[in-house]
Amino acid sequence: MKVLMVDDDASMRRLVQTVCEEAGWDCRTAAGGEEACALFQREWPDVVVLDVMMPKVDGFEVCRRIREVDENVPVLFLSARDGIIDKRIGFSFGGDDYLVKPFNEEELVMRIEALVRRSRRSRRDGEAAAPERPERFALGPFTFDEVRHEVLKGGEPVVLTPKEFQLLHHLASHPGAVMGKDELIEELWGEEYLDGAISIAVYVRKIREKIEENPAKPAYLKTVWGVGYSFEA
What we know:
- By secondary structure, the protein is of the alpha/beta class.
- Helix content is 43%, strand content 20%.
- The chain folds into two domains: 128 residues, Response regulator (Rossmann fold, 3-Layer(aba) Sandwich), CATH 3.40.50.2300; 96 residues, CATH 1.10.10.10.
- Helix 2 packs parallel to helix 3.
- The relative contact order is 0.09.
């Protein structure tokens, strides 16, 4: 699990990072609001632990910006401000929980675990409710056949390797959705390959050479810089 911890207090960042790492989690830290927003879109963490009182861009504003790009990631405010008004503001900006400093380290771990567990359960329920894409479907000039592992463009077959087909089919099954490198590796190869030498960029380049009129200026398989890839047709 990946945690993003945001606080202008270096000692607090080190404390939370130590607590997270002892729990077996990967913790990235940011010292301010602008840095946090940039780091969020680069790392796409599973949960955000967010201080309120920071110079220039405070925690409430950071939460508001996060909600513009991700409605579901859990946000836990960690603040010395314990007034009910502060808590109400935090929740109104899209926060999911509010823990007052100083805090018990074990309680922090439990709250993070509860938030992520609730988020994942909600995501699974949403996926279960969503209609499944049929085994054969058309998207723009493309036809995808999952049973035959076949892609047609304008009625002509596109010759793809099995992994190229899986990658393209997965992206086309979620048209317009931006998927990060780690997300694609975990989905197509498995979590155990996340630290391996698999290069999604190489697969993308080879697919573009087979489906794009101009691979240097792709019209279908697009790169969203700093985030991942998407397919639109």
